[in-house]
């Protein structure tokens, strides 16, 4: 989609569709008032008759409005003006884009971006609008013999700002929104691929392609390399699969040469059967999404590289399948991780933490400033938080606050969960340094506690995205979360947000 920033009167826009808002109590926004004046009171007459009451999540499409140069005007209900905040703004934008896209309008002028939102800058409004527009028009129909048809899909969107002196901020917000949306789309594409195509080798190929596009350093460690590193925890998960594991490392150097990097680690289990601790058949097809942590850190790297942010960023992806078979790891087996700590594998379906712990130890060689791992780790996190918020754990409260703030800014929210030593007791094993599960209770927390044992040498946060990485049902598909949260975190760190 092509975007542009413009300031001007809505009645003078030569566009297939002009989008304006109406509040409840029949109050027109300023752009709607200008259209109403140009049309001789046409819109206010409609509002008085009750055809558009301004209620949230309602629209009315008008054709050939007198006194204007556009083909259509879309009125979007905004709800009560006193209650119009971030959530209402984002909902109105999403509804407007979806509606315009279904009308057959090739281009549109969006005047909702002029609406004031408490504590939100014009850059925020434009950034979010670009992200929502690209998300709302995303399609994944690569494997359909007949593609999903959208009648003349929306191709050009002009975002209106009220004053010319806002153009600079708006352009910056637009560039950021497009970059974040590109990262989200890349993560969604990778997550939506079936496991017979998206195996560890394919993830490695995508990383190599990204390295060529953005001039990054890329290293793909094969099974022999992983064995030399004594990553026996990662190898234990890969033992039952015919697909060889990969350890993928990408390095972006945008900061000072002596600046310590931030390391992102993404869980890359390209299909998770549960191994010998086999999952039930129902919805097992969704276990292709178990590499969405890997997809999200690669998508974040893409956004950072597109924006050329002044930061050093290293991405590590341990990639493998988790399959049953004659060589598969059994419940009760004990392995020694790269760190030297021993693990009794009580459940082979708790495999994500097994590959992440070796990746966390491997991250030490980069002398990182901060390490953040992202993983579809536990069903317990879905029980706790549903599909609304990602679970956030950290060994530094300051880091947790920074990530929470980034999630609020991006509207890709997380919730700070406890990481108290009390929970470590649940991981005790009579035969090894620890078990890989802690029992029925507090499953998301004990998984994070397990990982924390491998993070003593750096600031660390863990994002459990099991509930937010994909959707089931009629909207089934990868979401691309938490690319927006992570990219906004890097925008905040580098002072790029307005």
Description:
The chain has two domains: 2-160, 3-Layer(aba) Sandwich (Leucine Aminopeptidase, subunit E, domain 1), CATH 3.40.220.10; 182-493, Zn peptidases (Aminopeptidase). Helices cover 35% and strands 20% of the residues. The chain has 14 helices and 21 strands. The model has no long low-confidence stretch (mean pLDDT 97).
What is the typical, i.e. mean, pLDDT? Answer: 97
Q: What is the percent of helical residues?
A: 25-40%
Span of the ends, CA to CA: 24 Å
Please name the fourth-level CATH homologous superfamily of the largest domain. Zn peptidases
Tell me the layout of helices and strands.
Layout: E1 2-6, E2 18-23, E3 27-28, H1 30-38, H2 42-49, E4 59-63, E5 72-77, H3 86-103, E6 107-110, H4 122-136, E7 156-160, H5 167-192, H6 200-214, E8 217-221, H7 223-228, H8 232-238, E9 246-253, E10 262-266, E11 268-272, H9 292-307, E12 312-322, E13 333-336, E14 342-345, H10 352-363, E15 370-375, H11 379-385, E16 390-394, H12 397-410, E17 414-416, E18 434-435, H13 443-452, E19 459-464, E20 470-471, E21 477-478, H14 483-493
Parallel strand pairs: 1-7, 2-5, 2-6, 6-7, 10-12, 10-15, 11-12, 14-18, 15-19, 16-17
Antiparallel strand pairs: 2-3, 4-5, 8-9, 9-12, 13-14, 16-19, 20-21
Helix pairs in contact: 3-4, 4-5, 5-9, 6-9, 8-10, 9-14, 10-13, 12-14
